[in-house]
Specification:
- By secondary structure, the chain is α+β, with helices and mostly antiparallel strands.
- Helices cover 41% and strands 11% of the residues.
- It has five helices and four strands, in the order αβαβαββαα.
- It has helices at residues 13-20, 31-43, 57-65, 86-97, 112-130; strands at 23-26, 50-53, 75-79, 82-85.
- Strands 2-1-3-4 form a four-stranded mixed β-sheet, sandwiched between helices.
- α2 (31-43) links the parallel β1 and β2 (50-53).
């Protein structure tokens, strides 16, 4: 993991984003969030996107640098220019994965407030419907390089 030359205890988040372009921060104990990560990995096994939990060092550094993201507890998609949250993050993940899934980008025709309302409704119920894990599952050895948390 890249470290900043200014402080050995701080991650160099801009360098990570410059190297990988996208970092998906997700709730490490959320069943739906973990399924989403696995869905991406099945469709993009060698891509540049990297993954980190909101609870881990990369997630904590992102929230320190972008405190306005602290209200999001499910999925945040970081990119070199900032971050996408809620329904926009979901749509940008679909754009990233590509293929037939890009048909879902028609969702951009809906006002963001409506899209985010739907997203928030699902997010509020995600533990009840998809479970809350005791701990973040370990990636397979083949997937390990895609995850930034130790």
């Amino acid at each position: 993991m890249a470290r900043s030359s200014r402080s050995p205890s701080r991650l160099d988040l801009p360098a990570l984003l410059a190297e990988h372009r996208y970092i998906l921060l997700y709730d490490g104990v959320c069943g739906l969030c973990n399924r989403t990560v696995q869905w991406i990995l099945r469709r993009d096994s060698d891509g540049p996107m990297r993954f980190a939990t909101l609870q881990g060092p990369v997630g904590r550094e992102a929230l320190r640098r972008l405190p306005q993201l602290a209200v999001v507890d499910s999925v945040i998609l970081l990119h070199p220019e900032g971050a996408w949250i809620k329904s926009t993050a979901a749509l940008e993940i679909i754009r990233y994965v590509g293929g037939v899934w890009t048909l879902a980008l028609v969702g951009y025709l809906c006002p963001r407030a409506l899209r985010d309302w739907v997203y928030d409704s699902v997010a509020r119920r995600r533990y009840a419907r998809f479970g809350k894990l005791e701990s973040c599952p370990l990636p397979s050895p083949a997937q390990r390089s895609r995850f930034l948390d130790p």
